[in-house]
Amino acid sequence: MAAIQKIDFNPNLFNDLYWELEADLNNDSIRYIWLYGGSSASKTFTFCQADLIRKLRFTDDNTMVVRKFGVDIRDSIYADYVGIINDWGLQDYFVCQINYIKCLVTGSYIRFRGLDDSEKIKGLARFKRVVYEEISQGEHIDLKQIRKRLRGKAGQQIIGIFNPISEEHWIKKEVFDKEDLITVSTDRNIALKQQSVSGNVVVYKVTYLNNYFIVGKWVDKFGNPVIFRNGFFPTENMKMIYGFVDKHTIEDFEKDRLTDYSNYEVYALGEWGNIRKGGEFYKRFTKDNQVGRNIYDPALALHISWDDNVNPYLPCGIFQIEGLHLKMIDEIAGETPNNTVKAVCNEIIRKYPAHNSGMFVYGDATANKQDTKLEKGHNFYTLILEYLKEYKPVNRVTRSNPSVVMRGNWINTIFETGLGGIKVTIDEKCTKAISDFIMLKEAPDGTKLKETAKDPKTGANYQKVGHFSDLFDYIMVSAFNTQYLAYINKPVSNVNWSGFI
Questions:
Q1: Any idea what DSSP says for residue 71?
Q2: Topology of domain 13-207, per CATH?
Q3: Which secondary-structure segment (H or E) carries 386?
Q4: What is the distance between the alpha carbons of residues 169 and 283, in angstroms, rounded to a whole number?
């Protein structure tokens, strides 16, 4: 790869992310670069700046840009490339065609492709890097195919750009959580920089507060750089030295902070979260009110609730009850080959080996029947009681499951008003349960919408979300049965809640 004479650009054209990214793109030991965070953070735009400058400097520095759907390319990342070329007055140096940009100085080029399926990821040997914009829209198999096919050149890189829309997303579970990442100290205006212990993965998190073309670049009265971390709050002792303040964007983020914190968490703060899109079943569930820290108390009984499913996992929720306060302290999702009653019970024993304050069992009433797949005379719950007999468990599974609509209305009212003095807290580490409460949709008839998907490993169809919220419903109706019956049998205004246990 031959280098061409360097072209100098005004440094005020760039956010601080650019200077870090420029060095990473030159580092052949780095295989993966992840750019994530909030919206208006200039993630994609900054990468396009760095990539175009490389096209002007190096021959054989080709880039493949992909998105899940090709129809989205022209008005997104392709438009960013073309806009930069025009803004910088570089039209004589580049030819721009549909899905293709070529540098006339070096011959290096950029191609754009949509991924209707993973088999379209072919012919990557000629490319120095593959950029997957909005990779959160794609599947894990897309990344696997890119990884396998991008070979044949030294220093080839894969760049993923996205907003962290869900803690349950495969990027979080299959990439970030499986990398040994350490925080890297930097003086630049970047929310977070991490690198893998092996050195081949770099992660950047940025938000609108790191974008000088949203909040400006400021110095204090001594000329020291000011970096905003928890909101845009300049004072009279500060001076903006370049960039500009986008008042409308900042006001929009502030509105979300007050009225839609889930959105604010992801798109303003760049935190892993879940996005509400409307039509949710649990309309009154909010992370502000229902999510917190619940510490296991060995003096309180364990209340374990189940949903009789094996795909995509066998779910079990671990709760404790203090007065009228239901605390979800843990969740277990037994994935294949551990999606069996015995395997999940063994996990409970492993986590709570010394517990001796009692145990109660709740769950899906339909699993009370004898199961022909199990040993004769056994059902789902007789197996649970047998495997956990050292805890002296008591079966509290109801004879039938209550109305989905009615229990949903009751639980939503508790979430909103604390009806009957009942309080619910879900521990923040119970990410699958939290995702269920936020992502589960309501069907037209007021029940839960059972959206399905196919497991790529087993080929089995399964309900995408709702398993942990179902087992939550079961324990709520059983543990607070007096309150539930009062709700469905009397007008709420006539119920005297005092004295209920």
A1: G
A2: Rossmann fold (3.40.50)
A3: helix 380-387
A4: 22
> What separation in angstroms does the CA of 11 have from each of 15, 16, 26, 392, 432?
9, 10, 19, 69, 44
Cα–Cα distance, 131 to 123 (Å, whole number): 14
- What proportions of the chain, in percent to the nearest 5, are helix, strand and coil? 35, 25, 45
384/395 Cα distance (integer angstroms): 10
d(CA 391, CA 304): 12
pLDDT digits (tens, 9 = 90+) for 458-497: 677 888 889 999 999 999 999 999 999 999 986 545 544 4
**Coil, strand, or helix at residue 46?**
helix
Going by CATH, does the domain composed of 287-494 fall within 3.30.710.10?
Answer: no
The pair of three-digit structure tokens given for residue 74, joined into one six-digit string: 């022209």
H or E segment and range at residue 345:
helix 341-351
What is the maximal distance between C-alpha atoms in the chain?
Answer: 82
Note the pLDDT tens digit of each residue in 148-175: 999 888 899 999 999 998 888 999 989 9
Spatial separation of the C-alpha atoms in residues 363 and 344, rounded to whole Å: 14
Task: Show Cβ contacts of residue 306 under 8 Å, excluding neighbours closer than 6 positions.
Answer: 314, 315, 316, 317, 361, 362, 363, 364, 367, 380, 381, 384, 471, 474
Question: Where does the chain hold its CATH 3.40.50.300 domain(s)?
Answer: 13-207
Give the predicted TM-score (pTM) of the model.
Answer: 0.71
Measure the CA–CA gap between 25 and 358, rounded to whole angstroms: 57
388-415 burial string, b = 16+ CB within 10 Å, else e? beebebeebbeeebbebeebbbbbbbbb
